[in-house]
Amino acid sequence: MKELLLAVPLLLCVFATIPAWAACAVMPKANCPHAELYGANMAQADLAEAYLAEAELYKTDLNRANLRGSNLYRARLMDANLMGANLVGARLDYANLSDANLVEANLSDAVLTGADLSGADLTGANLKGAVIAHIKLAKSVFCRTRMPDGAVNNAGCPGESGMPPAVEKSSPADTEKARLPAEKQKDPLSVGKADVPDAGKSSLPVSDKGSLPVTGKVKVPAVETRSLPASEQGNQPMAVRISPPVSGCAIQPGTVCVHASLVGAELGSVNLAGAQLYLGNLAHANLADADLSGANLKESNLMHANLAGAKLARANLTDASLKEAMLRGAQLKGANLTRAFMLQADIAGADISGATFCNTVMPDGRINNDSCTVVKKTRPRSRRYFRR
Which of 253, 292, 317, 325 has its CA 20 to 30 A from that of 163? Predict the structure, then answer.
């Protein structure tokens, strides 16, 4: 008995060294919802028809893995290696695949509704028959990519004629202008036209063309002002600021703009308090000093966004992607950051008091579970029956 008691601490140390993914059986039809598999080496694993809904697969190596017919609903696959993976018929709806390596991956007949593919490399990938409604494609790479309708997308191939011209930081503006067709040179005021494929050549459904990524800056037009009548002025300011709509989204408190496409939008100091912007694409947007207190930004793409000094108190940032976002000096008091992805974000001087952290990827890559609620399971009382 004494030897057994001495062996208990040793056994606990052994179990503590077992990686989190070992608790999930790597086999076809594995049942591993909410599994913590981040950083695991699962190359060439056979997980056909596995149930991996809402699994943590951040930076997981799934090179050549068999995920045919698997359920990856809302799974977090940021920076995951899915090169050559078999994802035929897989459920990836609302999954986060930002910056994932999907080179030569087979995604035919997969369901990608609402998925985030921002920055993903889809070179040589097969998307034939896939459902891609409302997906986020900011800075995704398409080269020799088979699209859902069977067409081949070479927009991201170097030197290809179908590649949307992009202004390089090291290239002069006049050199870049010379590369554009003559008819586009005549319209210097068009924003992002060179970055959006022509409607006739796009392989996306017509209903989804509004959500195509725009890598150019979406500038807010000059703010309209109007003077109040003398009888109404009183203590009011001399002019009322009316922000015109941006990409069809009214810039005002409480606005409802679900699936808004505001990539690179200039929205500094705007008032969007209480706005419903969930599932929106605000990658690279300038929201410095903006008022987003109480706003619903659930599952929004805010990668590389400038939120310096922004008011985000009580904002809902559940499942939001904030990778490399600028949050210096932002007010995040009471914000919900459950499952938010904040890798390499700048939060210096930010007020995060009272914020909710659960399965949150912090700037340094660690997982913050400080606010996760632990549900204690109690054994139900057994009923005793007595004979009279």
Answer: 325
CA distance 322 to 191: 25
The amino acid occupying position 1 is: M
DSSP E strands in the chain: the ranges are: 145-146, 152-153, 224-227, 239-242, 360-361, 367-368
Q: Give the tokens for residue 87.
A: 């994802």
- The string of pLDDT tens digits covering residues 38-69 is 889 999 999 999 999 999 999 999 999 999 99
What is the residue range of 260's domain? 248-372
Residue 26 has pLDDT above 70, yes or no: yes
CB atoms within 10 A of CB 149: 12
Q: How far apart are CA 155 and CA 144, in angstroms?
A: 9
Please state, in angstroms and as integers, the Cα–Cα distance from residue 40 to each residue in 59, 72, 99, 224, following that order.
Answer: 8, 16, 17, 54
CATH of the domain at 104: 2.160.20.80
Residue closest to 142 by CA, chosen among 181, 173, 103: 103
pLDDT greater than 50 at residue 163: no
Pairwise CA distance, residues 100 & 86, whole Å: 15
Answer positive or negative: Cα dihedral of 177, 182, 187, 193: negative
Q: How far apart are CA 213 and CA 66, in angstroms?
A: 30
pLDDT, tens digit (0-9, with 9 covering 90-100), for 200-238:
333 444 334 343 343 444 444 444 434 444 444 444 443
| Residue type present at position 355 | A
Tell me whether residue 358 is in a domain: yes
At residue 308's C-alpha, the angle toward residues 115 and 361, to 5°, is 45
pLDDT at residue 159, as a whole number: 67
CA separation for the pair 144, 109 (Å, rounded): 18
CA distances from 54 to 95, 337, 367 (A): 8, 16, 15
User: Strand pairing partners for 271?
Assistant: 291
